Amino acid sequence: MLSYATKRALIAIFTLLVASLVVFTMLEIVPGDPARLMLGMNATEDAVHNLQQQMGLNQPLAIRYFSWLGGLLTGDLGKSYTYSVPVFDLIKERVAVSLPLAAISLALSTLIALPVGIFAASKRGEFSDTLAMGVAQMGVAIPNFWFALLLVYVFAVTLRLVPAGGFPGWSAGFGVSLKSLILPSIALALPQAAILARVTRSALLEVLGEDYIRTARAKGLSRRQVLYRHALRNALIPVLTILGLQFAFLLAGTIIIENVFYLPGLGRLVFQAITQRDLIVVEGVVMLLIATLILVNLLVDLSYAAVDPRLRRRS
Q1: H/E element, 163
Q2: In angstroms, rounded to a whole number, what is the distance separating the alpha carbons of residues 296 and 283?
Q3: For residues 273 and 87, what is the distance between their CA atoms, to the nearest angstrom?
Q4: Do both 8 and 103 map to the same domain?
Q5: How far, CA to CA in Å, does 223 sit from each of 130, 133, 171, 216, 287?
Q6: What's the domain range around 158?
Q7: In this entry, which stretches build a coiled coil (predicted)?
Q8: Taking the CB of residue 293, how many other CB atoms lie within 10 A of it?
Q9: How many domains does the chain have?
């Protein structure tokens, strides 16, 4: 297990280094001067020169890359031109919204999807299976921003049970802040739950067709015992893969939902930084999201070994 974890960790570190090089290079190949692009074409030469010095654009390329990489390792992501504050402080403030939102959404998605997927697989070919997968297909097809607007209209405007948008901050109280994340979490969770339920069902049905499952049934085990003791654990690898991808998506891909609910999260920060041409902020947030995705994939790989002992023996 230790050898397997070490190999995966080294691959993750190498991937992160390559990703940092790609992100840095993309900023370099932006047509024109990045400083002039950020300030606008009407900026004075003095302003452009000052920003070039601030961004270190007057230094050799290799020195700038390793200086930027060292800043990443120490948490120094530069200073935002638009907000005039360190990028790290901006990200820290927005992560306090996006991370709980993603975690709650993933928890809701998992709690809904796994029972539905298992139930549909156990009732294969029956009306309940068709109904469950039909509802799941609708969940995949319906755009989450439309669903979010529907939730706002029903639960915020009509029933007045929860706020329609905004985030008061965790300093306002845990209950008040959590209440403002309920509708966004549901809007994000249900489409992801539909995808995860279909994957769970398909993975279980594939495992249920294996020879060792038929052998277990022939030995007298009930269908329920076979499903939960043998099939479910072996069907978890594709489910874990989707869970890892979904968490990364929920953390990085919430731009529309955060704008619908006026949440000051990472997605909205990236959107604002792009519209304001604040490339330093975009660069820092992108690297954070890439690092998160790589870390999640590493944890998923380690969970594979916990679920499937063959991977540990193979390493």
Answers
A1: none
A2: 20
A3: 11
A4: no
A5: 20, 21, 51, 9, 47
A6: 95-276
A7: none
A8: 20
A9: 2
Together in a domain, 106 and 59: no
In a domain, 89, yes or no: no
Same structural domain, 65 and 185: no
126-160 confidence digits (pLDDT tens): 899 899 989 888 888 888 888 888 999 999 888 88
Structure tokens at 52: 């070039």
The 3-state DSSP composition of the chain as helix, strand, coil percent (nearest 5) reads: 80, 0, 20
Q: Is the pTM of this model over 0.70?
A: yes
- Whole-angstrom Cα distance, residue 177 to residue 165? 11
Containing H/E element for 57?
none
Q: What is the CATH number of the domain that holds 219?
A: 1.10.3720.10
- Between CA 64 and CA 61 the distance in angstroms is 5
Tokens matching residue 217? 């049934």
pLDDT score of 111 more than 90: yes
Give kind and range of the element (H or E) at residue 230. Answer: none
Output the six-digit token pair for 261.
């609910």
- Tell whether 87 is covered by a domain: no
Q: Are residues 10 and 134 in the same domain?
A: no
For residue 32, is pLDDT > 70? no
CA dihedral 101, 258, 184, 202 (to 10 degrees): -80
Please check whether residue 304 lies inside any domain of the structure: no
Q: Would you state the pLDDT for residue 31?
A: 64
Checking if the pLDDT of 312 tops 60, the result is no
